[in-house]
Amino acid sequence: MSVVATIIEQSFFARPALTVAKELLGKYLVRRVGKRKIIAPINEVEAYIGPRDLACHGRFGRTLRTEVMFGPGGRWYVYLCYGIHWMLNVVTDEPGHPAAVLLRGAGKFNGPGKLTKGLRIDRRLNATEIAESTGLWIEDHGIVVRKSQIERTPRIGVDYAGPWKDKLYRFTMKSPIRQ
Hints:
Elements: E1 6-7, H1 17-24, E2 28-33, E3 36-48, E4 76-81, E5 85-91, E6 100-106, E7 109-110, H2 112-118, E8 136-140, E9 150-153, E10 170-173
Antiparallel strand pairs: 1-8, 2-3, 2-8, 3-6, 3-10, 4-5, 5-6, 6-7, 9-10
């Protein structure tokens, strides 16, 4: 019996970042590049929960860079890290509450820089809807990821965030989905 893939609706993202992060595991990131479609199961994410979170870009308030984070959940937040790698984030929560989930790995793309490079993602997708019409969306293929299949660890590269560096806001699948 084959499962019919359904595109994740905007309401999925209008929830707290920690909830969305855990539930993104096992979903599929889909990228259309020309006539080709690349489908990769999401296996690693990090949550950034809002202005109190000292690792979250929203802690500085509204800026040109972070404006998208203050909008409705269900948009892409794409920014350049270290002047080298594009980072792909899902904006979550309600308008006015800057929170997001960084996609760190999907399918054969391990690491956020490798993910965006492999899927040809750059600033042009920033602030666009997570929708098929933009060429980048997320699908549900009916895979249920149990709590026992998820490993929680501290986020990577946020040593500057004081006690927030130790929060267990990084989620990975113990056994990634095979493509």
